[in-house]
Amino acid sequence: MHICCAPCFIAPYFNLKDKFDIFGFWFNHNIHPYTEYVKRLDSLNTFATEQNIKIIYKDEYNLEDFLRKAAFRESNRCRFCYYDRLNYTAIVAKKGNFDYFSSTLLYSKFQNHELMKEIGESVSKLNKVKFYYEDFRELWKKGIEQSKNHKMYRQQYCGCIYSEKDRYLKKVKHE
Asked: Where are the domains of the chain?
């Protein structure tokens, strides 16, 4: 399962752990700024250690690649983000002989689930590994409670520089 952050992973993990042998996959090349990337990674490492969860890391901070793809197409930036993360997760799942791949992005009520599902199914065919789709948004409140109980770092925006701007610029203008 691709993991964007520990707070988005906790509820899907507890929901699925009795059905599947879950391996986490960390690949978040577009988180901005780098200090945010590190906080999210540290929070995941703490939770994974506590729960004895196996994590595969593609610990690459490649913001420039994401920005090149999104430049002048900022309104479609999520498409590039979803594609990169889901495609690479499918590649790792195929190489590792996993039965399925999925993503914690499916937990967030702020993500475009239809687009993620479409991309997940597309990269599933391309990489010949099954995409596990489940709408984890029903676990939203439970996940928030669980992440607070585990004292996880809880970020305030999706992760990219554009989502950071969307989150905080509106707040600054209204203060």
From this structure: 2-174
